[in-house]
Structures are given as structure tokens and as C-alpha cells.
Automatic annotation (TrEMBL):
Superkingdom classification of source: Bacteria
Residues of the AB hydrolase-1 domain: 25-136
Pfam families the UniProt entry points to: Abhydrolase_1
Bias (Low complexity) ranges: 278-294
Keyword list, A-Z: Hydrolase
Residue segments, region Disordered: 275-294
Coiled-coil regions listed: none
GO biological process: glycerolipid catabolic process
This protein's name: Hydrolase
Length: 294
């Protein structure tokens, strides 16, 4: 397959780097974390046989530069960036959208503010912890991360953050048996470069975001909450599970954990492919054993 078509888009306060692959209806992939478009490149390539797949580096990440490098970040701005890309690449036509982690938070805001542009949203583990009954504990976690970052630096702050995401009883370290594909391992340098921005500005803004639950419930016919099969009990899993139960939509389980799209890319892509295909009334096709469940 030939490489992606690469472009830039001027938005308010930033210049976005975006990539487009394939042909067909538009599918927008909104990455989370620090990997940007490179983190979902394998997923984009696998899906480009059926869709025009667009992805991008979120503002401030990798090749998407901020006019003011010190600017604070907001979910609303990031969601508007996604909207501007939809307007550029699929004017007047609703698109399918997949968002992961912080990208899923931006995607939820996109759905509530620009529902006419979203045909279907698959939101994988959006860490909207403010919807949880123990939200106060997670506000305290964010405060500890912030204080540790200022007092001790990046890696101690990352250790505090990672500990707060794990389920009770888990110990530090990667899951047993997980080996990153070579292309994922090659992204390590870029990922590390983006960590200060991510921990200092994305994490506090996105994990304190309060979604409009009444609006999301009204739009739940075009929303699928998703989580990793191996993420059960971890903090990013819990908001997706809670919202899926509240909206009565079922929770779609993908292979792997929070980063399953990079650790299990082929299986992840195949389930997402089946999910995105039109089926019946517009809801996704049944996903089989790994599919929707409570």
C-alpha cells in the first residue's frame, strides 16, 4: 500500500499535521496519549481498504505545533480541531469516528457539540473520571501528579500517575507476555518527547472534563463505549463501563488493554472493522465473543 497523503490545517492557535489513507466514506481516528498519528498508523492502514481513514497529531503533540507553546489545553479546543478536519475532509457528510483515551474524551465532546457531523462514534476508554462515584479520589490523584511533577520532575510524576491507573493489587511493570510490534517500539523516542506536555497539560485538562451526560444519553444511538478486555478494574475502563450501563448500550470489549490498538493491532483492527460496518438500523454489527457485554 502506498503511504498516506499528508497535509496541514490551520486552526485557532495551532497548525495540525494530518494523514489520509484509502478510499470510501470518511473514518476519523483521534489518537490518545503522546503517539499522535503514528500510534494509529497500523490501524489506519488496516482499515483503509474500506474507508478513507484520516488521523492527525493532536495540537501540541509531535508535528502539530502550537502558536503559543505555553498555551493551556481544553477538551473543547481539541474537539473543535476534530470538527475542522471533518469539515475539510468530509464537508456536509457525517463521518464515523474512533477515539482512544484522551482522544475519546475529545470525541465525546465532538459528539455532544457537533452531532450532525458524527454518524457513529466508538469511544475506547475515555478517562472521564468525573462521572465516577469516587471522583474525589481521582481529583486527589491529579493533584499528586501535578505536585510531584513540579517538585520532583517527569518520571516520578509518571510513576504516581501510573500507580493511580492500575487496579487494586496490581504491581508496577508491563503486563506479562506483551511484546510491542517493531513499529510500535520505534515510536518510543517520539512518545517520550511528548510526555511533559501530556502529563503537564493534557492529563489535568482531560481527566477533569465533565461530559454532558443528558446530551450523550440522547445521542447514545450513535455512540458505542468500548474498553480493553484486559483492562477490567483499571481506572480508564470504569467510566466506559459506567456510561455503557447508564445508557443501556452494552460495552464493546476490544483485545488487549488500554493500549490494545498498539499491542494487538491486527485483532483490534478486525473488530473495529466489523463494528463500523453499517448494519440494520445503523447500529454496529454484532461483534462475536469479544463484543458488546456489560
Amino acid at each position: 500500500m502506498t503511504g498516506p497523503t499528508v497535509g496541514t490545517l490551520r486552526v485557532d492557535g495551532a497548525t495540525l499535521h494530518y494523514e489520509v489513507r484509502g478510499h470510501g466514506p470518511l473514518l476519523l481516528l483521534i489518537p490518545g496519549g503522546t503517539g499522535g498519528a503514528a500510534a494509529v498508523a497500523g490501524l489506519a492502514e488496516a482499515l483503509a481498504t474500506e474507508w478513507t481513514v484520516a488521523t492527525y497529531d493532536p495540537r501540541g503533540m509531535s508535528r502539530s505545533t502550537l502558536d503559543d507553546p505555553g498555551a493551556e489545553q481544553t477538551v473543547a479546543e481539541h474537539a473543535d480541531d476534530a470538527f475542522r478536519l471533518l469539515e475539510l475532509l468530509s464537508p456536509g457528510e457525517p463521518a464515523r469516528v474512533f477515539g482512544a483515551s484522551s482522544g475519546a474524551v475529545a470525541a465525546l465532546h465532538l459528539l455532544t457539540t457537533r452531532p450532525e457531523r458524527v454518524a457513529l462514534l466508538v469511544a475506547h476508554e475515555p478517562p472521564v473520571v468525573e462521572v465516577l462515584p469516587d471522583a474525589a479520589e481521582h481529583r486527589a490523584l491529579l493533584a499528586r501528579v501535578r505536585d510531584t511533577l513540579h517538585a520532583q520532575g517527569l518520571m516520578p510524576a509518571m510513576a504516581v500517575f501510573a500507580a493511580g491507573l492500575r487496579k487494586a493489587g496490581d504491581t508496577a511493570g508491563p503486563p506479562a507476555g506483551v511484546t510491542l510490534p517493531p513499529q510500535a517500539a520505534a515510536r518510543a523516542e517520539r512518545t517520550m518527547a511528548g510526555l511533559p506536555f501530556f502529563v503537564g497539560r493534557i492529563v489535568p485538562a482531560f481527566m477533569s472534563y465533565v461530559p454532558d451526560l443528558h446530551r450523550l444519553e440522547a445521542l447514545s444511538g450513535r455512540l458505542l463505549l468500548a474498553a480493553g478486555e484486559d483492562s477490567r478494574g483499571e481506572l480508564p475502563y470504569r467510566p466506559a463501563a459506567l456510561l455503557a450501563e447508564r445508557f443501556g448500550t452494552g460495552l464493546l470489549h476490544f483485545p488487549g488493554g488500554h493500549t490494545g490498538l498498539t499491542t494487538r493491532p491486527a485483532e483490534f483492527a478486525e473488530l473495529l472493522r466489523r463494528t463500523l460496518r453499517p448494519h440494520g438500523s445503523g447500529r454496529p454489527a454484532p461483534a462475536g465473543p469479544a463484543g458488546a457485554s456489560r
